[in-house]
Amino acid sequence: DPELAADLAELRMLRADLSEADWLTDPRAIALGDRVRQRQWASTKAHHVEEHASLASVQAHLDDETAVLSYVFGSAGLSCVVVTSADATLVDLPEWADARAALAGLRADLDMAATVRTGPMADVVRASLSRRLSELSRVLVDRPLARTDARRLVITSPGILAGVPWSMLPALVGRPFTLAASASRWVRSTVAPPQSVGFAAGPRVARGAEEIETAATAWPDARRLIAREATVASVSELAAEVDLLHVAAHGRHSSDNPLFSGLELSDGVLFGHDSDHIAPVPRIVILSACEVGRSSVRWGEEAVGMTRAWLHAERMTMRGTGAMWSMSCPKSTPSE
After folding, report:
1. Is the pTM of this model over 0.85?
2. Which of 72, 118, 143, 261 has its CA 20 to 30 A from that of 303?
């Protein structure tokens, strides 16, 4: 759709010219954003409707060392369905209000912990973050884990839990798990080593090029886009040609308009909206970028953001469920 591409290109220019606080309130940006949403709503069609996997189907895909923890949120509160190869149990989480209170200040604690590394405040910040993570672990994970001895987990969660850093919860530290879009998507996913790999580093990222070059050494035929080469068009083209895409770039989540969250590339921002026009998308996407792992919750407990946009595009092309990682900041090398 050339008109849609032109609208997104103009939005990229507005995003570059206006301040962070003003660009989505600019009258022209508002008009373009509305037009983009309307055009994508009208032009994007589902090629396939996935049927929900049955309990028996999910259990058939589990071995003795793997269990599913599927969190369910409704008017009665939060519960977790624990599914093993032999059993399924509904576990009530009566202290959900405590977890919700801990979530309220979690982002601020994470931001401060990433910023304040030394000095007298560092211990205070780390203690506050540790208390929140321990409380979330106690309320969300301890009861479900008491119902299974499984070593590996598959976790699915509603939008209300979109901000939970599961790997940081004490009960899950060191435990292998998959955070799946849904149990049905996990059942239908395919696991195969990537055959083609692409890397891209956006501008103004300290050690971004070093990160890309270091990671690419494991893949002899890996393609690289660095600095000026990493444009919106070139990264989109690369994404459509590889099984695994690794991008190190500055990222920004737009809470008011989540699908205008994006990655800063050499000629502008790659928006969440752009992912709908990448076909096919990679099976595995690694976003080494600030904020793009965040989501905003909309009606129906749907989490919307950059990662969800990529997963949505993947579903529309009817490929196996891809994996998605988002790191907080691309400043360190893998060895660190």
Report:
1. no
2. 143
